[in-house]
Amino acid sequence: MSEVARFIVEYTRFLDPNGELQRDLPAFARHTSELRDLYQQMIWVRLFDYKAVTLQRTGKLNTYASTLGQEAISVGIGSSMQKEDILCPFYRDYAAQLMRGVKMSEILSFWKGNEWGNHFSQCPADFPICVPIATQLLHAAGVATAFKLRQQARVVVTTCGDGATSEGDFYEALNIAGVWQLPVVFVINNNQWAISVSRRHQSHAQTLAQKAIAAGIPGEQVDGNDLIAVKFVLDRAIDNARAGRGPSLIEALSYRLCDHTTADDATRYRCKKEVQHAWEEEPLIRLKKYLIQQKSWSDEEEEDFKKQCTVSIEKSVIEYLSLPKAAITDIFDYQYAKLPHELIEQRIEAEALFKLSQGLR
Amino acid sequence: MAEITLIEAITQALRYEMSADKEVVLLGEDIGRNGGVFRATVGLFEKFGADRVLDTPLAESMIAGLAIGMATQGLKPVAEFQFMGFSYPALDQIINHAARLRNRTRGRLHCPLVFRMPYGAGIHAPEHHSESTEAIFAHIPGLRVVIPSSPARAYGLLLAAIRNPDPVIFLEPTRLYRLNKQKVEDTGVALPLDQCFVLREGSDITLISWGAMLHETLLAADRLLKEKGLSAEVIDVATVKPLELNTILTSVEKTGRCVIIHEAARYCGVGAEIAAQLSEKAFFFLQAPIQRVTGYDVTVPYAQLEKQYLPSVTRINNVIEQTLEFA
């Protein structure tokens, strides 16, 4: 018997949960001003997230999927991508979406059940949040195919959760990305829970990153709560993809501090102790500690910044709440490029009933 | 102008449109050097190269998802599923995404793509190679389902499907692939989608069909004329979704009698939809109940019994006679 292949899966971390450096910082992180900006992005999205949950609890939003505790992954993605790149996200990437120009009012609109929330007036090429698990990875591969065929130096980043790695589309996307050496980066937000199914029950594989090995593409793990590490591995993966060196898979280890969605109650299936422990490792505290240590941040600055965020978020909420209600005719008008004859009659009927109901109100 | 088969007409349309529009890209299993299992793409890899004719790994959901992503970037992918029975892993992508992307982004992103697939029974193929499940696709808002029944319509409708800005399910009846030849001008002229074709005018009864069953339907019309001296109007629905009812309605208002023929199982078949719409809109013109001649509501049998499963000319004529005799 002889050995035919051997694989390793690397893990990257710079900052431990206490904000202590584990290894020399990469070049970008030596500028504390940049780290400060990234830290502020995390605060911003966390406050937005809290606000969205509050809106849901007070009846001003329908079911909402929180991103609490996973901000570093999404901020890393948002900061590593170029404007001309395309994001095919799952539903916990508000930070990346916001950084790329999606409006808060659009994200809120989406979760209020209005398709106009996917219209992305300031970010016209990105994909909307994808709900059917792992299907977006194939769209990303398709977009990357177009980039490659057209010889454009553009990259697609697509995201999914740990549960998605059990789906067929996950493997199919990795496989084609490998065969065609597509400019795509797959990011797994491994937050340990797929609704109520724990990581241990999702896969017997030691890491999710190793699933890349079967597709012949690089796969690595990163501490998803260490923003510096996330950005470091993402920059490298995106550079590789842009330079024609092919796709990669990044498994970012984090924890879902929130429920699956506002319709879920995670206390039914996981213990308090585990969540308490996860709070000690969450991404904001460690970077804050480090920045304070570097004299680049203070509690006072944080309070001031949070106030600014709150003002801006409240403004977006007002914008969201004052958006026009969805029009019934819209459900017909975007089904096809041109309204088919068979739909004209139904459209007239629905519009008449809609007007009648509006009048009765 | 040479006479060509339906499958050659498909190749001709693909070749024409790939020459005319560099955004048209083919993808599928074995479509490259092999030219496709039915040879629909024969010669195209050699003519247009590996960047226009993409041989994919064996994964149907992937083919569909990839085509969706490509289409959002302005490419016009024409994806081939090897047989309709193998398109089902792609249903998630087709139903949840291809059909919905325009609507869910309110027109921001859309999917100008074609999913081609051979379909139907009658060629002694192995298990799972004889499906006729057009109703599954026809049920989905946002999709178009187009079925040619002759070389000329295969050419013209496929061109129209590729040029259409929305996803089109293009079903190619395997039984007709090499059954007949016809002169087809290669001038790039498309036929209209969302429109029925009156294949034969008549005054005594309306026969409605699509795909391979038009072969038997036309023979049944011949027999009716020869044996009874009665004329049937034969309509090829061609686009089963969205359905253009006007042509059908005009005909049924004239003849007062109607038989719908399809090889798919009867229950919730497209024939049921046509019958329902006719009962709503042509009730006072009907002189007899609308009848259907269809595949039975059973799993399409293996090759030994597929001929008995498919509606035969005799079965169609029997039902035509019942419908005509109804007082």
CATH class of the largest domain in chain B: Alpha Beta
Question: CATH superfamily assignment of the largest domain in chain B?
Answer: Thiamin diphosphate (ThDP)-binding fold, Pyr/PP domains
List the quaternary state of the chains: heterodimer
Please list the strands of the largest sheet of chain A in the order they lie side by side.
1-7-8-4-3-2
What form of chain B results from the Cα inertia axes? globular
Distance separating the two termini of chain A: 79 Å
Structural class of chain B: alpha/beta
Order of helices and strands of chain B: EHEHEHEHHEHEHEEEEHEEHEHEHH
Mean pLDDT across all residues of chain A, rounded? 97
CATH architecture of the largest domain in chain B: 3-Layer(aba) Sandwich
Describe the structure.
- The complex is a heterodimer of chains A (361) and B (327).
- Chain A is an alpha/beta fold.
- Chain A folds into two domains: 11-325, Rossmann fold, CATH 3.40.50; 327-361.
- Chain A has 14 helices and eight strands.
- In chain A, the strands form two sheets. A six-stranded parallel sheet of chain A has the order 1-7-8-4-3-2, with helices on both faces. Chain A has a two-stranded antiparallel ribbon with strand order 5-6.
- In chain A, helix 9 links the parallel strand 7 and strand 8 (248-253).
- With 327 residues, chain B is α/β, with parallel strands linked by helices.
- Chain B folds into two domains: 3-183, Rossmann fold; 197-325, Rossmann fold (3-Layer(aba) Sandwich), CATH 3.40.50.
- Chain B has helices at residues 6-20, 44-48, 60-72, 91-98, 101-104, 134-138, 151-163, 213-228, 245-255, 270-281, 303-309, 313-325, and strands at residues 3-4, 24-28, 53-55, 76-80, 114-119, 144-146, 168-173, 182-183, 197-200, 205-209, 232-236, 239-241, 258-265, 291-295.
- A seven-stranded mixed sheet of chain B has the order 3-2-4-5-7-6-12, sandwiched between helices. Chain B has a five-stranded mixed sheet with strand order 9-11-10-13-14, with helices on both faces. A two-stranded antiparallel ribbon of chain B has the order 1-8.
- In chain B, strand 10, helix 8 and strand 11 (232-236) form a beta-alpha-beta unit.
- In chain B, helix 1 (6-20) packs parallel to helix 7 and helix 8 (213-228) crosses helix 12.
- The chains are: A alpha/beta (361), B alpha/beta (327).
- Chain A binds chain B through residues 88, 115-116, 118-120, 124, 127-128, 132, 135, 137-147, 149-150, 168-169, 172-173, 175-176, 179, 330-331, 334-337, 340-343, and chain B through 25, 51, 54, 56-57, 59, 61-62, 64-75, 89, 92-93, 96-97, 102-110, 141-142, 144, 164-166, 194, 242-246.
